Structures are given as C-alpha cells and as structure tokens.
Amino acid sequence: MVPLIAISGRSGSGKTTLIVKLIAELKRRGYRVGTLKHDAHGFEIDHEGKDSYRHKRAGARCVVLSSTEKFAVIKDVDAEWHPARLAAAYLADADIVLLEGFKRYAFPRIEVVRAACSKRPVTPDDTSLRAYVTDLPMKTAKPVYGLNHTRRIASFIEREIISKQTPQNISLILDGEPIELDPCSGEKVIASIDAALKAIKKRTRPREVEIRLRLKRHTRRRRK
Amino acid sequence: MVPLIAISGRSGSGKTTLIVKLIAELKRRGYRVGTLKHDAHGFEIDHEGKDSYRHKRAGARCVVLSSTEKFAVIKDVDAEWHPARLAAAYLADADIVLLEGFKRYAFPRIEVVRAACSKRPVTPDDTSLRAYVTDLPMKTAKPVYGLNHTRRIASFIEREIISKQTPQNISLILDGEPIELDPCSGEKVIASIDAALKAIKKRTRPREVEIRLRLKRHTRRRRK
To answer: Which of B214, B186, B165, B179 is nearest to B84 (CA)?
Structure first.
C-alpha cells in the first residue's frame, strides 16, 4: 500500500490550501506526490465541446484520454470506490498520497482547524489523528502546527508516514474491496504467482506484475 | 481482453461524430460502452480554479477525484501507456470499447473516409481493417457503410467484434506490457492464484480478483 495521509477539517478550513503547499514542498524534496479528493457534491471536470464530454454525454460509461505525457479517465461507478482501491489502481507509483476528505476512514489524519471557520475539530482525537494544523490553542497530546508551517508539516509527514511505511510488495483487491494481507501470507501469494508466471513466459523476469481475473462460480452438484 | 474496435481516419474525417453516434446506438442496445482516445497534441481536461487543477499545478503527479457517481483521474506518465494496458486497467467492465486514433496498433479497425476531407484511406486494407465508412465509392472486398448508417455499423460491430470475443478470464500485464496468454496457460495461472487465495482468506470466494505485485530482483551469487 502506498503511504497515505488524510487532510481533514470543516469545509472552508483551508484543506486544499494546505494540500497545495504540501504538494509543492514534498515535490521539492524529491517525492512523487499523488492526491485523492472526495467530492460529496459530485464534480464537473469535463467541459462542453470537448470530445470526452461528447462521449460521456452520448452515454459512454468510461472515457479515457491518452497522450505521451499523461492520461485521464472519467468513469461512472455504481457506488463510490474505496479510496484504497483507487490508490492501488492509480496511485501505486506515488511516494506519498495526500487525501482530502475521507474522514470516516481509518487513514492517518491531520486535521485543519482554522479559527475563522470553526473553533473545534470535526474529527475525534483518536489513534488515526496524527497532528493538528491550526491558529487556535489546542488541548491535545498530538503535535500542533501553525497554518503556515508547511515545511514543518512536510517533515512530520516524511518522518511519521513516508519513512514508517513498511514496503509492501502486493496489493490485493477482491470484488472491489482492498484486502490487508499479513506479510507472510503476502509472500506466499507472491511466490505462487511467481512460480505460475515462470511456467508460462519466455522472457526476462518482470518486476511489476498486474493481474486481473474473473473466477468462475463453483456450481454445486445437486442430488436427485 | 475487453472487445475493442478502433475508428480511424484522417483528422477531420468525422471519427468523433461517428463514435458519438455509435455510443448512443450501442448503449440503446444494452451495452456498456467505453471509449479510449489518443490525443497526439496533448489535452487539457482540467481547468483553472478547480482543486484538481491547483493540485496538478503545484506538482502532483496524479490527481484523483472521487464521488458516489463517478471518479476522474489525471495522471502524468513517462511514456504513453499501451492502449491494451489502459483498457485492461480501466475499461475491463465495458462490453465494447471504441478507440479513436491508435491506428498503428493491430486492433480491428473501421476507417472513416469522408470526401470533403480526403479521397482515400490513410490506413492499409489489411486484416485489421474490417470495414469502411465513407461517402466515396471504394474498391475493396470489405463491407462499406455510409456516413449515416449508424445502426448498420453498430450491428456490424455487434456481430463481428462483440459476439466473436471469446470470454477471457485473465488479463496479465508485466512491466506495463499486456501479455497474450493462450487459454491453457491462462487457466493454469488462474488455478494457482485461486489456490493461493484459498489459503489466505476466510471469506466467500471472490468473483473479481485484482493483484498488483512487485517481484524482488534475484541477486546472482558471485564467485570469488
């Protein structure tokens, strides 16, 4: 799993402002940064007149645009994807992913509390809460940073999230749900896939492997 | 592999117009349609002022927006992803994917030749070329449709692409490159993964499995 930190806080507290500053600072330090933003109100990324817009409006369920520099995907879903699934699918090559929103998930979390917006945090001071970023005095045992302490907050993320991430070599998603594997089980699955790949291919051993499969339903035999 | 058909033709020949009409017609017939468009000139999907734009401009390598109805991804890449990789990763749940561009790949292809734009095809009449859509007389053994024969073209795609697709239960991508597996090898890999999963999980057998893994480099022992 790629290292994740959620930036939470009330609407208007300054989450996006903080994230934008952290992206620049973490990039400056050599990290590849990804972001994942939950938008409760839906969003419009696509615009009238663009081909992608015309495809979507005609009824395409998923539109992908691809160039030599980037690609873009706009995809309809029946239910919101778990952020860990989105991270595994799109953000696996990032060194750190900054999440905006998603406060109901148990990701490590920094809460922004800005006096002009709210006097107290909106999420509990639990084990996921790692630090506050605020212009208010705060009664907590957790680290407290000022709204403009971008470099100190970046160092905190580097120290507490990026460097503490145990390298994991497998991500497993079953029926759309990310599965936590203990390292031993993970290694077993990797070994069996590695063995299966050896049997089929006549090429250099790959480094990155992506597999999607559809398992057939087992049909039970009925007795007469 | 999800069934793919490329719509090719000179710039201005009416590829997007045809694709938009086909999306609507195929959707009306109950198919889930995905599209994949190559844009040689790059594209701007994101717009100033949006959070996603601010994230990208600050230096994020990948930005994901998620809601209950859809998600969007904008991702920087070092080199253009193979369309089959994009299709496997993001379009696997479509019944049919319409490609725009990508004429140098060996996907089944329909070429649009519109007199106002060009007098002759831009791609060869080879085995990948399945039909022409044109307002010109055309010397070919392949089917020729008029520019407005949307329903007949949709039926052709249904008959020649969608229904001829052999159901494949595995997609394998090694170091970013989609690998064609013969059905027998595919079933072997599926069986070994199925067995590995049985050993680790205590839950109902999944139907859809996604695995990403990073294999360690084998280090060769050196002799002194």
So the answer is: B179
Rounded to two decimals, the ipTM of the complex is: 0.87
Q: Render the burial of A29-68: b for 16+ CB within 10 Å, e for the rest.
A: eebbbbbbbbbeeebebbeeeebbbbbbebbbbbbbbbbe
Give first-to-last CA distance, chain A, whole Å: 49
In 3D space, the residue among A72, A47, A53 whose CA is nearest the CA of residue B20 turns out to be: A53
Whole-prediction pTM: 0.85
What is the torsional sign of CA A82, A85, A91, A97?
positive
Nearest CB to A43 within list B34, B67, B206:
B67
Q: Is A73 exposed, middle or buried (0-12, 13-18, 19+ CB in 10 A)?
A: buried
Q: Which residues of chain B make contact with A216, given a CB cutoff of 8 A?
A: 169
pLDDT at A224: 43
Contact A212 B52 (CB under 8 A): no
Residues in chain A with CB shorter than 8 Å from the CB of B199 are: 185, 188
Contact B58 A213 (CB under 8 A): no
Among candidate residues B90, B109, B84, B99, the one with its CA nearest the CA of residue B19: B99
Q: B21 to chain A: which residues are within 8 Å by CB?
A: 58
Condensed to tens digits (0 to 9), the pLDDT of residues A107-120 reads 999 999 999 998 99
3-state helix, strand, coil in chain A (%, to 5): 25, 25, 50
Average pLDDT over chain B, rounded to whole?
A: 87
Residues A38 and A104 sit within 8 Å (Cβ to Cβ): no
CA A214 to each of CA A81, B38, B97, B102: distance values in angstroms, whole numbers, following the listed order: 19, 28, 19, 28
- Please state the φ and ψ torsions of residue B113, each to the nearest 5 degrees: -125, 110
